User: Which sequence fits this backbone?
């Protein structure tokens, strides 16, 4: 009997806290997730000189909330990493883009619950294979509430395109009259030059992405609908091996600290400026955080609301 009462009380307290969180009002009406594909923490925020990421690491960081210990705790490959972001659960999914995530994505929950047109959720990716993120194998959701996509050089889900072209599509959407309320962007150059074992180009690409992130944030502020109403999440799908692990920066995909330790910077109207968070956060938390900010339910997400990054 005692146990039952305690269980009931705990459930009640849990529900009250949840209800409080859900009923909170946020300034955020738009969300953008920028995924910089595969840099190591040691070359980005982990380098205290901020040499390669002068804007993110030394300036934008102090305009938002930064997770010092943000992780990919699932398979550290591109499609699995992005799948964890959009579905809120880790799974072993083909990294070739040949199968769909087993759970519906935050885009699908959002589009269903708001009745918004599909172009209100948009995936713009340099890697064509990321087109799979818009759909799911789940029978109840398959082919329904599928977000708009522009993945790969021709936007048709095939091949690898240049980040410049991807960013041109992003610019068109962010500066347009009907900017999507949820957008995910993938930029590939860092990862591609890493795999090519080109250390100089790998480093140059980190700096190029630093500039893209800054341009994106300032461009958002030029759109009257998005200005002061947009939360931007800047993160990675995975890192790369530490120098002493296998081929070092050239590859990724295991559980080493270099592959797992990534970054998250949150910028937006509901986020305090200049805070550095020690508590661990992980990729699956992003979807639950977005569903909380935009007030839709995402029951299949296993993540948590990243409350440290938002004003109480
Ligand atoms: Zn990747
Ligand atoms: Zn590794």
Assistant:
């Amino acid at each position: 009997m005692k146990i039952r009462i305690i269980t009931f009380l705990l459930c009640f307290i849990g529900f009250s806290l949840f209800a409080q969180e859900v009923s909170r009002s946020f300034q955020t009406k738009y969300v953008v997730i920028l995924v910089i594909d595969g840099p190591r923490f040691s070359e980005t925020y982990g380098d205290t000189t901020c040499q390669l990421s002068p804007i993110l690491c030394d300036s934008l960081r102090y305009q938002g909330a930064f997770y010092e210990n943000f992780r990919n705790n699932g398979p550290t490959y591109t499609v699995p990493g992005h799948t964890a972001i959009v579905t809120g659960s880790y799974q072993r999914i083909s990294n070739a883009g040949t199968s769909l995530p087993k759970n519906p994505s935050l885009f699908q929950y959002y589009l269903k619950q708001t009745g918004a047109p599909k172009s209100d959720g948009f995936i713009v990716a340099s890697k064509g294979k990321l087109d799979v993120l818009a759909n799911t194998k789940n029978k109840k959701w398959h082919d329904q509430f599928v977000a708009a996509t522009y993945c790969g050089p021709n936007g048709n889900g095939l091949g690898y395109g240049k980040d410049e072209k991807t960013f041109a599509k992003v610019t068109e959407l962010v500066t347009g009259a009907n900017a999507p309320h949820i957008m995910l962007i993938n930029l590939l150059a860092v990862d591609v030059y890493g795999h090519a074992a080109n250390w100089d180009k790998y480093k140059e690409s980190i700096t190029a992405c630093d500039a893209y992130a800054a341009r994106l944030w300032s461009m958002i502020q030029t759109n009257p609908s998005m200005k002061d109403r947009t939360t931007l999440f800047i993160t990675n799908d995975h890192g790369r091996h530490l120098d002493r692990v296998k081929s070092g920066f050239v590859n990724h995909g295991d559980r080493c600290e270099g592959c797992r330790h990534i970054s998250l910077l949150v910028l937006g109207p509901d986020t305090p400026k200049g805070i550095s968070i020690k508590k661990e956060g992980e990729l699956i938390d992003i979807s639950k955080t977005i569903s909380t900010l935009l007030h839709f339910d995402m029951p299949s997400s296993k993540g948590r609301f990243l409350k440290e990054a938002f004003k109480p």
The two ends are 36 Å apart (CA to CA). Residues 37-38, 78, 81, 191, 237-238 surround zinc ion (ligand 1) (CB under 6 Å).
